[in-house]
Specification:
The chain is α/β, with parallel strands linked by helices and 244 residues long. It has eight helices and eight strands; from the N terminus they run H-H-E-E-E-E-H-E-H-H-E-E-H-H-E-H. It has a single domain (2-210), classed as Vaccinia Virus protein VP39 (Rossmann fold). Strands 1, 2, 3, 4, 5, 6, 7 and 8 form an eight-stranded mixed sheet that branches.
Length: 244
């Protein structure tokens, strides 16, 4: 099962290495974003909102979390979320551009989106191209950083930061993986665009709009969730099971 494949891989030495790297990135980023409502969509094995300072935060997935939903049809009210995390959601979405359109819809003006993705222009991307098995994460579609930035720009997002991580070679053998971790210290200096994982922090910009905050004191999860917008459904795929 796809979910079990993700959980099993995250418990491996390489998966644990990824978790440590991504926790550090998300912990730093979310602590500097302010607002009222934060959502982590997918990859629920990692609590990426643990450093979030917002008064109301929750996690959502296909069959787990406080809200069950698909990334292409988010059941949240328009302009209701201040911070949305998409950890490795786009690689396993049937329609990643639609996922970003939904993200833009639910975010408030000046709201933030934080995306992590596997970089195809890296040693990790090379292994993905050569492996292409049904195991996580190699079964996904690695999307280039340039493509994601272009999509965000078309949707009116302003890029705030784009750090990279996971410069170590993706060895399954823990001994070889440990020998390569020195590359994390030198990678950002010598080959900055070849990290195995890219990390995008972007802000939703709405020209000519004045931001007026609602009275969130009365707000609860049930007030954020609404009937999903009417859209043509995308084909279901086992890829989306990766992000519960």
């Amino acid at each position: 099962m796809a979910i079990e494949s993700q959980k099993a891989w995250l418990s491996t030495p390489l998966g644990s290495y990824l978790q440590a790297q991504e926790h550090a990135l998300f912990d730093s980023a979310v602590s500097n974003v302010f607002g009222f409502n934060a959502v982590q969509l997918g990859m629920l094995e990692l609590d990426l909102l643990r450093n979030c300072r917002m008064p109301f935060s929750f996690r959502a997935g296909v069959r787990q979390g406080a809200v069950n939903c698909q990334s292409t049809q988010l059941p949240f009210q328009t302009s209701s979320i201040d911070l949305l995390l998409l950890p490795h959601v786009l690689e396993f979405s049937d329609d990643p551009h639609q996922t970003l359109r939904e993200a833009e819809r639910v975010l408030v003006p000046e709201g933030h989106i934080i995306i992590s993705g596997f970089n195809p222009l890296s040693a990790w991307g090379l292994k993905w191209a050569l492996t292409r098995t049904n195991d996580y994460p190699w079964r996904g579609t690695f999307l280039s950083l340039l493509r994601i930035k272009d999509w965000l720009a078309l949707l009116g997002f302003e890029i705030v930061a784009v750090p990279m991580s996971c410069y170590a070679l993706p060895f399954a053998n823990p001994s070889w993986l440990n020998r390569c971790q020195f590359m994390d210290k030198t990678g950002s200096r010598w080959w900055p665009m070849m990290g195995g994982v890219y990390f995008i922090v972007a802000k939703k910009k709405v020209l000519g709009m004045r931001v007026i905050r609602p009275d969130w004191k009365k707000n609860r999860l049930k007030n954020l969730v609404s009937v999903p917008t009417q859209r043509q459904p995308t084909q279901n795929s086992q890829h989306q099971d990766e992000h519960e």
